[in-house]
Write a structure and sequence with these properties.
- By secondary structure, the chain is of the alpha+beta class.
- The strands form four sheets. Strands 1-2-3-6-7-10-9 form a seven-stranded mixed β-sheet. Strands 4-5-8 form a three-stranded antiparallel β-sheet. Strands 11-12 form a two-stranded antiparallel sheet.
- The protein is built from nine helices and 14 strands.
- Helix 2 runs parallel beside helix 5 and helix 7 packs across helix 8.
- It is elongated and about 70 Å long.
- The protein folds into two domains: 135 residues, no CATH class; 116 residues, no CATH class.
- Bound molecules: zinc ion.
- Zinc ion (ZN) binds next to strand 12 and helix 6.
Length: 307
């Protein structure tokens, strides 16, 4: 975290201490409830975050985001353990939040590790420089897959280098994951969770960009997205499928159709693909012509067959 990334606003009793986290959209105040984490006697791998006592409930002053934060040390490296405090606001019964101590070791190595308890409470062990990324997730309600965050954090060098440059790289890549997650959710909802190419739902659908996110300027708008099942997402990403921007007709690459003429399973896949894109609920969410044009410009070398 940079010098200006974290600003203490009010510590008070320390439970909570109000601090501000710097973000692209300005400072975000959080109510930090810092307490001890310790091994739990019952099971060897089990650790817990302990409440200080009956008279100190978790609070959310002025609606400020409450975060329960434990501080641990692994091989002389500080690791935070964070919980969303919202589910504990106002609870006066002294209790502990349990987590698998293994995430402390994993976070010391990769910068990020998660554990979800049987009660559905998520513990995140993280490098202190990734606290802003965690706050962004809590605020947006989008939690990218923990392994993906760990890979991104690890690749940014935030653990190995532990400097502000690496921290900024980590923040950008994790923030990208959060924004992708929000985009995917919005696109999925626009299509009622159904694939725009085959109508499958079964919670197997993600939101994919048309003008790809790797291109500078591609917007995270529903009209630059398609809800696709995993097979159609992969087929779209591998340029097996071309969609006519004007009438939304769906076209397969000739060699895929050739394979489908002799391979029964491939034939079922191509036959299950609708001849035209299925539309989202709202007309304003329909994929825009320009997004397809941008995609084909950007990826022209892969679409020579489409003509
Ligand atoms: Zn599909």
């Amino acid at each position: 975290m940079g010098r200006d990334a974290l600003k203490v606003v009010s510590v008070g009793t320390g439970w909570p201490g109000i601090v501000e986290i710097a973000s692209d959209r300005g400072p975000i105040p959080i109510a930090l409830h810092v307490s001890r984490v310790s091994p739990h006697a019952r099971k060897e791998y089990e650790w817990r975050f302990q409440y200080p006592g009956n008279r100190d409930p978790v609070v959310s002053p002025d609606g400020i985001l409450p975060i329960l934060l434990g501080v641990a040390e692994v091989d002389e490296k500080v690791v935070f353990v964070a919980f969303d405090g919202n589910s504990r606001v106002g609870k006066i019964v002294r209790s502990s939040l349990l987590f698998n101590g293994g995430i402390l070791m994993d976070a010391a190595r990769d910068g990020w590790a998660e554990y979800t308890s049987t009660r559905g409470e998520r513990a995140v062990a993280l490098h202190p420089r990734l606290l802003a990324a965690y706050v962004e997730m809590l605020q947006s309600g989008i939690f990218p897959e923990g392994r993906e965050v760990a890979n991104a954090a690890s690749a940014s060098g935030v653990v190995a280098e532990d400097d502000e440059e690496a921290a900024e790289r980590a923040r950008i890549v994790v923030s990208r994951l959060v924004r992708n997650g929000a985009f995917s959710r919005d696109v999925r909802e626009a299509y009622n969770g159904r694939c725009a190419l085959c109508d499958l739902s079964l919670d197997l659908v993600v939101g994919a960009h048309i003008w790809p996110v790797s291109a500078k300027g591609a917007p995270d708008k529903v009209w630059n997205g398609l809800a696709l099942c995993h097979n159609h997402h992969a087929a779209f990403d591998k340029y097996y499928i071309w969609i006519d921007p004007t009438d939304r007709a769906v076209k397969f690459r000739p060699n895929i159709l050739e394979i489908a003429s002799t391979d029964a399973a491939a034939k079922i896949f191509t036959q299950n693909t609708r001849p035209n894109l299925i539309s989202p609920k709202k007309a304003t969410d329909r994929p825009r012509l320009a997004m397809f044009q941008k995609r084909y410009e950007e990826l022209a070398i892969f679409y020579g067959w489409a003509g």
